[in-house]
Amino acid sequence: MMTSTRSHGRERDRDRDRDRGSENQSTASKKKRARSRSRSRSRSRSRYDEAACEDDCDNDNSYPIAPASSTNTNPYAKMGNLLVLQGTQGSFTFSSQLANAMGVSFASLQGVIDSLPALLLVADSGERARVWATVLALTYLNNKLADLAAAWELVAQKAHGWLATLNVQQLDSVFTAAKGLI
Tens digit of pLDDT for each residue in 142-154? Predict the structure, then answer.
């Protein structure tokens, strides 16, 4: 009697182990399928992001902006198009996107950089362009979006702080030149 109970117990254990094994296999296969789906989703997402950047960003790792602000009458959209171009240290980068955000020709802005004596005192040409871009952005905010000053005043503070660290001589003349273009 003892022997049959033991063999019966072993059969029960084998059946239980077999069931657990199939559960583990099905759980493992479910996890594997989920990982595969996740990978394919992330691959398709990255292809979309790259395509979107190729279309909107001109491959310069910047934010896509709306068409030139001269065609966009919403002042908040104009402000947003400009503010996304500010760097983390407070300066703006001189680019065609900046000109588009302000609704001004990039060529007209570019010709002024080397003609302003105050800008020529800035040794690095990259810094010179950032000073000019920052002055242009501040002038645009003050002249064209003055009604929204409460929304952009901290951005302007940061930009003025960055300009102050450079100690640019005759900065007022640069602001005067910017007012003439905007």
Answer: 999 999 999 999 9
